[in-house]
Fold DNA processing protein.
Amino acid sequence: MTDTEERLLARVALTWLTEPGTWSVHRLVDQLGPVAALDLLLDGGAPDATLRSAVAARSAAGAARQVAEQALRRTERLGARMVTPEDEEWPAQVADLRALRLSATGRRVDLETAPPLCFWVRGASPLGEALARSVAVVGARAATPYGTHVATELGYGLADRDWTVVSGGAFGIDSAAHRGALTAGGLTVAVLACGLDRPYPMGNAALFDRIAEAGLLVSEWMPGAEPLRPRFLIRNRVIAAATAGTVLVEAAARSGATQTLNRAIGVGRPGMVVPGPVTSAMSVGAHEALREHPRARLVTGTAHVLEEVGRIGYDLAPPARAPEQPRDRLDDEAVQVLEALPRRKAIGVEQIAARAGVDLRTAMRKLSMLEELAMVVRRDDGYALAPPPERAAAGDRAPTGGSPSPLVTPPC
Amino acid sequence: MTDTEERLLARVALTWLTEPGTWSVHRLVDQLGPVAALDLLLDGGAPDATLRSAVAARSAAGAARQVAEQALRRTERLGARMVTPEDEEWPAQVADLRALRLSATGRRVDLETAPPLCFWVRGASPLGEALARSVAVVGARAATPYGTHVATELGYGLADRDWTVVSGGAFGIDSAAHRGALTAGGLTVAVLACGLDRPYPMGNAALFDRIAEAGLLVSEWMPGAEPLRPRFLIRNRVIAAATAGTVLVEAAARSGATQTLNRAIGVGRPGMVVPGPVTSAMSVGAHEALREHPRARLVTGTAHVLEEVGRIGYDLAPPARAPEQPRDRLDDEAVQVLEALPRRKAIGVEQIAARAGVDLRTAMRKLSMLEELAMVVRRDDGYALAPPPERAAAGDRAPTGGSPSPLVTPPC
């Protein structure tokens, strides 16, 4: 067994011995590395009594390294893979969860919120790349037709502009967001709170298969792990930290659905909320969030979401995929028009105007300006984004060979 | 003719010579009094050319004092009356319009926004008293069934808690708010942008008659004045300044309906906005206002509105009508329960819980506490507010003989 394999095995064993997100475990791994941290815990050397008894209880059920070996074999049979901080595809931004030890309101967060030790992943895209330019769309399971409609539109609109749509795979808003992204032919990531072989809810099994084909299924729990209630809250922190921002669509009063939003704000991501009719019980939680969180932002559609995450998204994205634009020189309407253009094809001016939410004359004026700046090109069938080399050349900051953004720490 | 009659006549003549809200006229009246100000203007001594030519144009159409005399006779025939700053019933808070020379965003406001010179009033209640504890509910004429429903509920809920509902008498949201207040048997005030004998819109003539019977019709324009377009914007400043806060229910994109909201914020009143479905064109302006005004506050119903205007309302209200409560010692839920009680009758615990938006057990717990504090009394048919004398005795600050609130300047 190579050193790398041993470290992987230790991470899996640690995941089984203790729930993901446990701060004391995270600190041990940070200080000693996963192998020595595992040895210490198995020797009864856990730094606190709760952890010590949790490890003892688990160890009584089997030998940790043996369980981990079985889990890895099961992972392979599933067609899934492990991703750890040692891998290229690790989404480094989840380290921002360290900020979450205090909540957005300054109160101590008691739930387990340490960064993940490892992920199980099903799907072809590299995990880090898929999440580099991603937005979370979350909300109530008991969604109304209104909420389902809005979440589907958001999923579609974001995917159509090449943003990955991340959600939790639940019924209602989550499913609608995933489906919208799939319909647009975009990437979508479902972050589950159980093993990848135990799709929960079962009624979404077919949806999970489509997501695994076109996007990614992700979990911090090993195959076979059950969707226990507290795991959903632990899982939510990953959705909040892995994405450039979280949009809440529908939530009942004092609902758990607002927790992901709070976590997102807590790690410095934009927390966005879609309002609804004040007569709808499923919008009460959304309105509460807007009233109570000074940093929660009201959004009504894809354009508003892009406004919030736009810059952060570009920062998170690897330079090769998102060359910097001379956007700072553009006025708001020009940016809206630019963002209305799909990544790969040309569309007509009327469609651009509708997407950008500007009138036809404004769209035409801004498009001519953008054409002069070599940021868009005119074609027979409308306007398209200028191909990357020219766009890079027009940029203020050359993207090639630049140092990675400060948010993207090199894999360790 | 007495001095008082002369001053009144001068104010009416000034209103006819120049549009209400003109700063240079307001300043002249402030410095010289209405009679000398009128003489100066009629002698061609207006301080600026625009005003000079406006006065000249009007004077060519008739002698100002004669027109004013006719207007006063017509006022009497209408069963209406004049209210000026010299009268007891003048709503002193409209003087806060002086703050409006700069807009909420710091830009110069070019529209006429000076405080009014006088009001025409139809209805029995004293104007100042009716407005002392009032909230404006305004919005789109082309309201949706959703907006109409919400405005009616707000009008009803506010009136039911003894707040006067102020609006502009237009179709849509305005009418719904007035009707809700009338249904609750409460006071409602329609501030018109034309003469009181020319109800606009005509389709609301019956509604205006009901308002004049149960509440007040108010205008800054003399009988016969037409509802010219700019007058609606001039009128809006009165709605904003005369009330303790303005609630916007539905507004189309970039709509004039948000102007009253901006004015309210500009004079330091709470600006409140009811959200709606993001799929509704009639909520686009409401959502814009919530996104663009850092001080606009999202509200979903009467309870939220009372939270915002509650304290200001008590400050504006004459002490005799609103004895101070030891509310500062109560927690939020107790305040909600207390505010859920109607002013004059007892209601059941279940109804109280529903109105307060708390569960039954909480309602019962808070009611016992309020009973111990002698703020509510238990009766056979439920709970009621304790009668005023006892409530005043329980208060921290005795209301009797207190000096008027700083917001209420003595009539001059």
User: Anything to note?
Assistant: The first strand of chain B starts at residue 81 and ends at 83. The interface with chain A takes residues 146, 149-150, 274-279, 283-284, 287, 290-291, 297-298, 300-301, 304 of chain B (CB under 8 Å). The two ends of chain B are 20 Å apart (CA to CA). Chain B has a mean pLDDT of 86.
